[in-house]
């Protein structure tokens, strides 16, 4: 007699049906999670990422291919730099952690490098948790232990009721048993500073890892024992100037961690979104374009110009947003200023007095702006010089 399906098993089956029976799932990484947290109202991205849909492939199938992504050259350069930083059992990486984050601790002469290999993401996640527990327990109450370097550990984070498996570049266990996230990037650090936008993106990504590590620490806590400390200052390692030598900086991610945690908690649970979809909805890229478009459009989206740098479906959603005249296509700040007016037609109608409550501050401001614009255009027409007659000779 077959066993009844649990809620978790039923959800995984439903997500597999949405993805397509023969389509392998795409792992949800920290970069995607940070982008998802930045736009928690987008149910389309939530369900597609939760189901493991490859949005780049989906965008191409819809006829709106994305230019989003990293070049193969940049990936190869980044892999080469990461390998150099982690060479010799992570000796250079541990030196940087000691120098930038924990100079009072004993120098990392020799570190433990546990084997984290296992079958599948669930196995690797369990192996990582075991390695963290062993490294922390050995140092509990002494503060005089050694260093432990975890190369590409696997962490799990619950996102809207579905587990996401994350793989930070490295996690270091200090002699006092605390944990630090290490993020290795290929963009340069010039004279001790890097591109603020890229550093901000790296901080948001590292904040996701901190959240996942905090969940691991909470699960490892037993009885009255205190939970392991997850440090909120992460180490960002980049090439120094234009060389291949590593330089590092400590980055405080408390703000990013708080914002990301709050936004992820606001995400509608994936099973709730799936329950609202029409029967037979599927996002398999080999479906006819019309059927695939209908499936994608059955899930509400919250497009904003910021999506162009974070989501592979941004071009498709932008076209739909513009076709509907949605004010969100002008930016979130404009959308926030316009209140209940959600389309460009509504805004123009209110500005020209064809609709809207005159007592509404938004409507009043729009009408005042329209009046000022009309007055400026009239003044410009009155003061503009008359055109020279044809055939006139300049003297």
Main attributes of the structure:
alpha/beta; two-stranded antiparallel ribbon; six-stranded mixed β-sheet; disordered N terminus
What this model shows, in words?
The protein has 395 residues and is an alpha/beta fold. Helix content is 47%, strand content 10%. The strands form two sheets. Strands 1-2-5-6-7-8 form a six-stranded mixed beta sheet, with helices on both faces. It has a two-stranded antiparallel ribbon with strand order 3-4. The N and C termini lie far apart (103 Å). Residues 1-7 have low confidence and may be disordered.
Helix count equals 15
What's the shape? globular
Order of helices and strands: HHHHHHEHEEEEEHEEHHHHHHH
Largest sheet: 6 strands, mixed
Helix-strand layout with pairing:
Blueprint: H1 7-19, H2 30-38, H3 43-50, H4 55-61, H5 72-85, H6 87-101, E1 111-112, H7 120-137, E2 147-151, E3 155-159, E4 162-166, E5 170-173, E6 179-184, H8 196-220, E7 233-239, E8 246-252, H9 254-266, H10 270-275, H11 289-297, H12 314-323, H13 332-337, H14 344-351, H15 361-383
Parallel strand pairs: 1-2, 6-7
Antiparallel strand pairs: 2-5, 3-4, 5-6, 7-8
Short description:
It contains 15 helices and 8 strands. With 395 residues, it is α/β, with parallel strands linked by helices.
């Amino acid at each position: 007699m077959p066993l009844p399906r649990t809620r978790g098993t039923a959800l995984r089956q439903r997500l597999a049906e949405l993805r397509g029976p023969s389509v392998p799932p795409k792992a949800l990484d920290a970069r995607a999670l940070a982008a998802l947290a930045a736009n928690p109202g987008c149910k389309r991205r939530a369900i597609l990422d939760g189901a493991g849909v490859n949005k780049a492939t989906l965008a191409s199938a819809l006829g709106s291919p994305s230019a989003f992504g990293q070049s193969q050259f940049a990936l190869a350069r980044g892999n080469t730099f990461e390998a150099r930083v982690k060479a010799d059992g992570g000796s250079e990486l541990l030196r940087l952690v000691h120098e930038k984050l924990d100079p009072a601790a004993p120098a990392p002469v020799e570190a433990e490098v546990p084997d984290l290999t296992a079958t599948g993401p669930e196995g690797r996640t369990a192996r990582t948790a075991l390695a963290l527990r062993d490294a922390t327990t050995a140092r509990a109450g002494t503060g005089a232990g050694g260093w432990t370097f975890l190369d590409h550990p696997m962490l799990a984070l619950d996102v809207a009721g579905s587990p996401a498996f994350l793989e930070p570049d490295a996690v270091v266990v200090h002699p006092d048993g605390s944990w630090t996230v290490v993020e290795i990037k290929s963009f340069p650090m010039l004279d001790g500073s890097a591109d603020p936008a890229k550093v901000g993106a790296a901080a948001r990504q590292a904040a996701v890892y901190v959240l996942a590590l905090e969940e691991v620490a909470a699960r490892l806590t037993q009885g009255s024992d205190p939970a392991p400390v997850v440090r909120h200052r992460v180490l960002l390692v980049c090439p120094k100037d234009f060389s291949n030598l590593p330089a590092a900086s400590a980055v405080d991610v408390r703000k990013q961690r708080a914002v990301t945690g709050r936004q992820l908690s606001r995400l509608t649970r994936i099973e709730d979104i799936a329950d609202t979809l029409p029967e037979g909805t599927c996002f398999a890229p080999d479906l006819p374009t019309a059927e695939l478009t209908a499936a994608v459009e059955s899930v509400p989206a919250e497009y904003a110009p910021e999506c162009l740098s974070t989501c592979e479906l941004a071009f498709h959603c932008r076209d739909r947003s513009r076709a509907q005249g949605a004010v969100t296509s002008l930016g979130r700040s404009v959308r926030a200023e316009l209140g209940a007016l959600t389309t460009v037609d509504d805004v123009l109608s209110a500005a020209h007095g064809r609709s809207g409550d005159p007592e509404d501050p938004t409507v009043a401001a729009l009408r005042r702006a329209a009046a000022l614009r009309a007055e400026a255009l009239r003044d410009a027409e009155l003061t503009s010089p008359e055109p020279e007659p044809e055939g006139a000779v300049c003297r």
